[in-house]
Specification:
Elements (H helix, E strand, L loop, with lengths): L4 E7 L4 E7 L4 E7 L3 H12 L6 H13 L15 E5 L13 E2 L2 E2 L6 E5 L5 E5 L2 E2 L4 E2 L2 H8 L12 E6 L4 E7 L2 E8 L1 H10 L18 H13 L5 H13 L5 H17 L11 E4 L3 H13 L6 E3 L2 H4 L2 H16 L1
Parallel strand pairs: 1-4, 4-8, 5-9, 11-14, 14-15
Antiparallel strand pairs: 1-2, 2-3, 6-13, 7-8, 9-10, 11-12, 12-13
Helix pairs in contact: 3-10, 4-7, 5-7, 6-7, 7-8
Length: 333
């Protein structure tokens, strides 16, 4: 099946994105929604009574429903294009639970997916995710793969390095010569959300309207949090957020940045040994998250060993990873 365009679906726990791409990786059209895999799983249980035989088709019906908004001209029949799906769609709450691909994981697109054909023999490529002996990921492997297929940043990417993808579950991924060889997961984003929303210290935190560290007083609070993370006394430092408020050491808004600095600093602290790092650190994130991690690296004295990928380039990573998977499939088909 020779085509000039494909569909790429990035289906997370709480988000859905479907893109129409050409084989150069250019986005022709896209659609988004908040109906992630978790919500779709709930609908399948409610509407289909948890009938396992109807699960895959139930999820696929939602994708097809969203395809209509991508039909931008008569020259491209989106309903008959191959689809590459990554993220949580291959999990136990997704359309089909697939086993993880074990490390080492080749980033050339040759491994880590299963091909399923629909009733019209249209290929659906479902990406599996990756596992080590003690950790798992679904979605980040496709982003990482995509980075190595973005022509615009190839010159700056080290063949051996620590690639950090911040988020709800931040991933620290060790890459060696085109292979993912190990990774660690840090629940930095999830902890931040929980601590500012619930419990005692949440009463001492108020998010600023801008949520940036451009304001000097917020940047200072953030840096203070990063430095305090080096004590290794995280639980003690967390309670100080409450004390900061009661003792008027920091405002509730400043505490927001102090908490952010404390958690991000704690995540990165193991890299700040005082010795020159063996490998470069590469940060891939949204513009907002990248600014926080960049500042933390500066505060920890790691900026000289770091590369920050432009957020506009990182935004393309998932689609480029999905395209790499399709191109390998098309080559061997």
């Amino acid at each position: 099946m020779k085509v000039e365009n494909i569909l790429c679906c990035d289906w997370g726990t709480s988000s859905f994105r479907l893109r129409l791409l050409n084989l150069k990786g250019e986005v022709i059209a896209e659609t988004k929604s908040d109906q992630g895999v978790l919500a779709t799983h709930g609908l399948w249980e409610k509407l289909e009574g948890g009938n396992a035989t109807k699960k895959f088709e139930f999820y696929l019906a939602y994708i097809r429903n969203r395809m209509a908004s991508l039909q931008c001209n008569d020259a491209i029949d989106v309903l008959n294009l191959p689809i590459v799906i990554s993220g949580m769609a291959s999990s136990s709450i997704g359309m089909k639970n697939l086993p993880y691909t074990q490390l080492p994981f080749n980033l050339n697109g040759s491994v880590g997916y299963e091909v399923i054909e629909d009733e019209n023999k249209i290929p659906i490529l479902l990406v599996t995710g990756v596992a080590s002996d003690e950790d798992i990921m679904r979605g980040e492997e496709t982003q990482t793969m995509g980075l190595f297929h973005l022509p615009t940043i190839q010159a700056i990417l080290p063949s051996k390095g620590l690639y950090i993808l911040p988020g709800t579950h931040s991933k620290h991924i060790e890459i060696e010569n085109g292979l993912m060889v190990n990774f660690k997961t840090f629940i930095t984003g999830e902890l931040f959300q929980l601590l500012q929303a619930e419990g005692t210290i949440s009463k001492s935190i108020i998010a600023s309207k801008d949520d940036t560290i451009n304001d000097l007083k917020y940047a200072m609070a953030f840096d203070k949090g990063v430095m305090q993370s080096k004590t290794g006394l995280l639980q003690n430092e967390l309670f100080k957020i409450r004390a900061n408020d009661i003792l008027n050491n920091l405002t509730k808004e400043e505490n927001y940045y102090y908490l952010s600095g404390l958690l991000i600093g704690n995540e990165l602290a193991y890299l700040a040994t005082g010795e020159k790092l063996k490998n470069k650190i590469v940060i891939g994130a949204s513009e907002q998250l990248a600014s926080y991690y960049k500042q933390a690296l500066i505060t920890l004295g790691l900026e000289a060993d770091s590369i920050i990928i432009e957020s506009a380039q990182f935004e393309k990573a998932t689609a480029m990873g999905q395209l790499a998977v399709y191109k390998h499939y098309a080559q061997i088909k």
